Amino acid sequence: MQEFLKRVILYAVGLFLILEVGFRIFLDKSYFQKVNPYSNLQNGNYTYVFIGSSRFEVAIDENLLADILDSEVLNTARGFYSAGVSYQALKNALEDNPSLIDGAKVILEYPQFLDAYLSDFNEEKYHVWEKGFPMVQFLIPHLQSDDLSNFLRYSPNTPKAKFYLVCAYYSSVVRNIPVIQEYLLDNFIKIKSWNMTQQIVHQVQKSEEQKQITDFSDKTYAQSLIFEFKSLVEENGGELILLDVPKYSSFNENFKSDLLKGQSRSTRLPVISVDYFNYSDSDFDDKLHLNEDRVEEFTSRLATVLSEYN
Question: For residue 224, what are the β-bridge partners?
Fold first, then answer.
């Protein structure tokens, strides 16, 4: 019996090592390209760079916007990207391409990253989404070896997420599991929609807790991730702007205009919105993303707002 167990373990370890080598050779390149929105960019700078979640990713047609404005547009928004992951991605991209946002308007989704306004920089910059299963795969491409120890020390994520990130950092097999699942599952869209429904409920509940906060002290602001975002952008020649994106009513009702104005003053950042884009809940089939048939109109009206922005 012991000999049988030894053989099983030996075969399992051997199989894992073979898979690990194969994944590193054949899958890692596509993995990093898929989860890193700044991969394979040409050296040079952009006029508009959008940073946010899947709401930005879906609602903004970067090619159409570029054509209308006759400008270089980059939409780096990705589903389940936290504010911390977005910060790490931009920071590392600037190390590779220092002129990336020189003279650009860097437009951050608002209020998707509401927690970034109050959260401590050291904690929030290593925070990943953790709804059902930790979304650490999005942070992996932007971590250096010293960042890994900082993640374990500062991240507010659970021990489960930290353990999974360490495994995914060192193992190609582990970090590619979500990519393989997305590719193989025929019912992925259904799973994705269910997860997002749960996500929006959490976001609304979380925003309800922060709803009364309309002003921040200078100390709070100076220690927050949004301050670091602003500093990073300005140090590299850009201007940080917040864009209020269309939202489903159960999400939108938690962010009244007085809250927007209060946070705009407190963070010393402009908040812009496409006020004359009319929409209703029927324009959000999954209760989170703007329907495809409204994207062209929203993008066109956004282009007008951006062209008029001083």
Answer: 120
Domain boundaries defined on the chain: 2-126+170-308
Q: Which residues of 138-165 are buried (b: 16+ CB within 10 A; e: fewer)?
A: bbbbbbeeebbeebeebbbbeeebbebb
The helix/strand/coil state of 44 is coil
From the number of C-beta atoms within 10 Å of its C-beta (0-12, 13-18, 19+), residue 300 rates as middle
Which residue do the tokens 């959000």 mark? 284
Per-residue pLDDT, 199: 47
| pLDDT, tens only, 181-205 | 766 764 454 444 444 444 444 444 3
Secondary structure in 3-state letters for 80-121:
CCCHHHHHHHHHHHHHHCCCCCCCCEEEEEECCCCHHHHCEH
Q: Six-digit token pair at 150?
A: 């900082």
Question: 28-35 and 172-184 helices cross at what angle (nearest 10)?
Answer: 70
Measured in degrees and rounded to the nearest 5, phi and psi for residue 51 equal -130, 125
Question: How far apart, in Å, are the Cα atoms of 170 and each of 145, 160, 164?
Answer: 10, 16, 10
Mean pLDDT of the chain: 79
Most distant CA pair in the chain: distance in Å? 76
- DSSP symbols for 274-304: -TT----GGG-TTSSS--HHHHHHHHHHHHH
Residues 6+ apart with CB under 8 A from 273: 243, 244, 305
pTM listed for this prediction: 0.80
Q: How far is CA 34 from CA 51, 80, 187, 216, 237, in A?
A: 16, 13, 20, 37, 27
pLDDT higher than threshold 90 for residue 5: no
Where is 133: in which H helix or E strand? Answer: strand 133-134
Domain at 2-126+170-308: CATH code: 3.40.50.1110
